[in-house]
Write a structure and sequence with these properties.
8 copies of one chain form a homooctamer.
Chain A: H1 14-25, H2 31-38, H3 42-54, E1 58-64, E2 73-81, H4 86-93, E3 98-105, E4 110-116, H5 119-130, E5 136-150
Antiparallel strand pairs in A: 2-4, 2-5, 3-4
Chain lengths: 157, 157, 157, 157, 157, 157, 157, 157
């Protein structure tokens, strides 16, 4: 079976979807305000939200903008690995500048998104901290010229 | 000058960083609770949070997990484009299954993250809706085998 | 949901697995002989085999050896496609020399196994019948030097 | 000489071809039924079938469907090898999830078809059992999105 | 059958091989001198040589050295073709600077050896006469830095 | 200076070119017959031919056809090398099946033409004798499907 | 002949080399000062310098530093071209941000160095002005992370 | 912050730009002549030029033409590195034939321009001095066929 979890896939009803949409617009919208929109009491909204969080469907988090904080260089790094993939993925994931690591099938073994302050910072990260990890055979860096779309939610509408 | 914005890069003090960290753990933590941790009044925390949001440094949002919602196929699609890049990026960004589009320098012109329910869904998306966009010359798909790390914040600690 | 069929995945018991193994060794072994090995009556074996066939788990077929029949050139052809993938896959699948067509994610859009009598035959197939299909942008041919393993069954032992 | 076998290539007559076609439709069709179609006695059909099998032209086997048995991830793995090719091909061929290994000329040294239950299974196979074989320099995985055609016979019609 | 010719492959006896070796050293060596070495009369050598030439096994030709004649730039050009291969191969073969054209399986569709007087000459050939042929999609040029080995005979010793 | 030889490039007059053309047609044409065509005495032709050979402009040799001698598999092998190129080129050039070795600039370090009797022969050559040479990092094989043009002379007409 | 110019290659004597070295250090060093170092009169130095400039061996120019002038994004752009190369090279060379265009043999047809103010500038240049030139099939951009060496003179010491 | 220097980016006024343009035409033009064109005294021009040089905006240097000095082979070498990048860049930069070394993001880790006298010289440089540097995994050479544009100044007009 190709199911990845032990518990069943969650089927959201229309009310839960409406609640999630409200929170995608503003994660701190009050339960009372949400309740008015979706036609539930504040307590019922609070309970539903808690259940969505507990079941892992949704989390409510602060998301910061790297550019506003002076991190001007973003890039995707394709990594080719020699030997087992997971230990290398683990080592790469420990780096603070790395915000995304995925093991992929295809021309690269890992795709790694990095956020750096400058070209010097990126070069130091690549040269001294990623490429020196045992098992890293080669890297190819895709510098971001323009981030066109980034959303944090799927499967609701 | 290679600065990308008109307003200056924001330098966060230690208190603002501590507030962001609290909200990265739980986006709905009460201002009072945060105030106790960082040593500010509830009103001062509220004011600071509002300023961080207004300045674009941070947003607080619901983030849903595609796997829990039955979207079992994630992939990065490298797109090679003929002619201008931006119109193609715009068209790709309109697709609901696409949650990430970045224009890159390197072997691909666009990197596009897609979230699908199944192989059939992914094939239909690629074959009938991405590859038929005018200017798309070729696509190469990197199927995700395992998402190892994903964080939503940088530059604070 | 990422399930591909309407009916449920079949869980084989040990007896069914033993029957399949017998038929993998010799597809015409008599039900009586199989019954002796697996501890069932001839009728019970016949019934089980019919159910395995009807449910699509197994088929019993004649498999011919291309080399013995004078087809000396086998190759995998990686096909890069412009535009939609499925119409091209359909057209390629109609060719008699093609015994395998799969739509793939990665550097090629289709992988196509071909069986030919000679280099001339292969060249004619590639040049005049595959590369002239509308939507075929390029082909790369992997000539077989030695077929090391080929099995027709999975998931039983 | 570029002939690969000591015994001569077999030239099938029309009757043998008709028998093979019958068995490609149903590997357990009775010799009597086949005899009626092709105009031979049951004994003559039996004798011809035995000769086709003994000469290696044809075998009759049970073929199982990986998808029906819950093996939802199929992929072709291109393997690049350092040093001699055959020892690596041998080691890869020993793996149970591998149903096809061919040594090829071209950009990959081996093409390996694998059948797995899930992404996790595939990742474990690639990372811990294929990539750790001595001589494996790199792998590139072509995930199957849709199997369009698969036949088990050539050169008869 | 994968035989390419109607007449049978020729099996050379030791005397014919010895004659060919003599002529590989010097194509104008007298039949009498060859006869002494191989133990045949002049007439018998002449007859054997004529038969080797008539059957297509061997030709005796003047081979010129491009470098000595002022052709300082040699290169192999890999050509990628759109559509049928043979018409493009024919057009390329008509060019005087091209001394070798082979249709190949693999990353390039044609391999073309060219002999030019200078970089300007090579650029003009590529840009104005090869790349303008209908069906030529791309070329990649492998400039020769040093020709290490070139022999004109096989299979004799 | 980019001249490759100590002695000057040879400028052939029309008579020498005519002599070479005669010998390109038939390397054993008699000096008397050539003399009639080009308007020189037999002795003068003999002297000119000797000078062309001594200066390295031309040689007259037996050229055998691999296909006629049962060498049915020809291929160009692109070799990627680690470290110095020349020792690897030397080792490859020692192999009897190799009739051409050139050091190139570009995606491959060496281009090597090989002539083999069969796929098995080619596989053994690649796997056991080329890929085991120290410094050979990888090979990519371009199987010949059809040799379209091969000439042995340049720069005369 | 592979000579590229009509006039002969210039052989510099030791005095001319010493003069060039002085001017490589400081292009405005006075002829009197240079004369003292190389042992010539001011007039003789002036004459020699004029001859070196007139013959094309040397020029004395102001070279500006893009980084100091706010051009923070440098990149090499590999361009693949369809059809003739020179018209595309000409068009690319007209662009102000392009300071270097070379036609190359190999995986790219043109190598183009560009100097831009920002990622936005680079994206606009690539997308709207380079990729829209007729004959440009694809571009691959190599962003500069660090310029390690740049010299303006060869062949003297 | 993505600024690369401690001191601020320089904003040139129109007069400074005009001075630089004069010196781009002729690096030894007298300050008096420049002063007449830009409307300043000789002393003021001298002072401005000195400031432009001291601040690193501009240098005035002798630039020699490799072709005129007999360096007929120019090439860009793409270098792939194993492990840290900077030590390899440093070693490559020490070579006299190398006039340009840049660390890049993308398919190559370093781009290195080399200037050689001949193919032999280039081969020796690649084979014995670049490829033997520890950390150099592979090189790909792009031979220059024609240098179409080369300018030494940006950002002035």
């Amino acid at each position: 079976m190709n199911r990845k979890n032990d518990h069943p896939v969650i089927q959201l009803d229309e009310v839960s979807k409406a609640i999630i949409e409200q929170l995608q617009q503003d994660g701190r919208r009050s339960y009372a305000a949400i309740g008015k929109v979706v036609g539930l009491s504040e307590a019922a909204v609070r309970q539903r939200v808690q259940r969505l969080i507990d079941s892992g469907v949704m989390q409510i988090v602060a998301v910061t903008d790297p550019l506003e904080l002076g991190f001007a260089r973003q890039a995707m790094v394709g990594v080719k690995v020699t030997g087992p993939l997971e230990p290398v993925a683990d080592k790469v994931a420990e780096l603070a500048e790395v915000d995304y690591v995925v093991v992929t099938a295809g021309a690269y073994d890992l795709l790694v998104e990095v956020v750096c302050e400058s070209d010097e910072h990126l070069l130091e990260l690549l040269s001294c901290r990623i490429r020196t990890i045992e098992g890293v055979a080669a890297t190819e860096t895709f510098m971001y010229l323009r981030l066109r779309k980034q959303t944090y939610s799927w499967g609701v509408r």
